[in-house]
Design brief:
The protein is an all-alpha fold. It has helices at residues 2-13, 16-23, 38-66, 75-101, 137-144, 156-176, 182-207, 212-215. It has 8 helices and no strands.
Amino acid sequence: MLGTLALAALPTAWTTLDLQAAALFIGETSRLHAVDWWWVKLINAYVPAAFRVIVLVAVSGWLLCTFSHHGKQWRLPLAFIAIAVTLGPGLLVNSGFKDQWQRARPYQVEPFGGTKQFTRATVMTDQCNNNCSFVSGHVACGFFLASLMLIDKRRKLAWAIAGLSSGLIIGFARMADGAHWLSDVLWASPITLLCSWLVWALLRLAYTPKSADSSA
């Protein structure tokens, strides 16, 4: 988590990195016209919907395991997935950061033909009304996969690689669409992982059986 925080700090401190990265995809001097690539279109269109389905499946499975005598071992993992995705990529990112930071997206700012001002990632501004740039909800969904290392410690490295790879690939697609800055992509990782860790810690407390001494 500290490593992703350090990476996110780079384009935040040196804002030219944000502008230079965006210029690869949009603007008069763009070099990568990736927005029309089939897999980029697929990611931009369907990632949020896919994770909504995951949440619905997790909630359904959790309810089934909770109110039946089967699958008790799945209660905690399913509760974690349902709550962590809802609170992290869902509420914290979309209803929290996006609507409160009000950072304009790359295609909206003056250097790329828009009318809004470019602002630093960590600065709360008034350049966007809703569904703004900081941070990326799509990318947060991708990085969330790394959180699954908490419930599957035997495959910890595999989940870390899957989450990092998914986040960066989705981030590429979002930047190709002119929808997000590099810093929006990178900040999605520590924010999502921190939220997931807090959810996991609280759920572990809730699902840990009380000892006989403490209940006496």
